[in-house]
Design goal:
The protein is an alpha/beta fold. The protein has 8 helices and 7 strands. The chain is globular. The chain binds magnesium ion and zinc ion (ZN).
């Protein structure tokens, strides 16, 4: 241990810049492909159990009359989310990442080859449930929708600043449980805006459908 480091001190690790450059180039290419076909893509991010699939389903229920929707669902091993969404009658492509804890632009490009992009105009991408590394892997979506759940405690925004900074819309979900979880919604909303002053914050109880129209409006869909 260098003598500048002592037990109890902390230090920062800087991400590999080359990897980050390559992944953003691939993401740009995905965006160009989507634009060519007139498809708007939304990358949905949130921890396991935050309510990503539930919110996606509620959004599809409201949007499917006026938008042609397709879904790409990322998961490490299961098809549970894809099966929950398929009942809506929209095309769902499941990506099982086989251990990888995020989607990346290359995996999404290969998925896009299997989606009929002329048959849809809105693509919803459910990322793998995790708020750490997806921040470093843009998939090539027009907007990033971040879901924080009050069940994750009061410090989610300040503990995931990179993710919050990259998101366009932040949903605070399961607000019906805020009191039981001792989470102050105003405080959490302020934390989110403190990290990213540009972001739209929407409070939802996705299971009950509360706030879902506001999410759709915030995304401009
Ligand atoms: Mg899910
Ligand atoms: Zn990962």
């Amino acid at each position: 241990m260098p003598d500048t480091e002592r037990p109890g001190e902390s230090f920062d690790i800087v991400l590999n810049v080359d990897l980050s450059k390559r992944t953003s180039e691939l993401a740009e290419r995905n965006l160009a492909l989507l634009d060519e076909h007139g498809v708007t893509a939304v990358d949905v991010l949130g921890s396991v159990g935050s309510g990503k699939t539930t919110l996606i389903n509620r959004m599809i229920e409201r949007l499917k009359g006026r938008r042609r929707i397709g879904v790409i669902a990322g998961d490490i091993t299961t098809r549970i989310d894809a099966e929950r969404i398929e009942v809506q009658g929209v095309p769902v492509l499941q990506i099982q990442t086989g251990g990888t804890c995020h989607l990346d632009a290359d995996v999404v490009r290969r998925a896009l080859e299997r989606v009929d992009l002329d048959a849809i105009d809105l693509l919803i991408i459910e990322n793998v449930g995790n708020l750490i590394c997806p921040a470093a892997f843009p998939v090539g979506a027009h907007q990033r929708l971040l879901i924080l759940s009050v069940t994750e405690g009061p410090h989610m925004a300040v503990k995931h600043p990179i993710m919050v900074r990259q998101a366009d819309v932040a949903v605070i979900n399961k607000i019906d449980l805020a009191e039981a979880m001792e989470v102050a919604l105003e405080r959490l909303s302020e934390d989110v805006r403190g990290v990213n002053p540009e972001i739209d914050v929407v409070l939802t109880n996705a299971r009950a459908g509360e706030g879902v129209d506001d999410v759709i409006a915030a995304l401009g869909l």
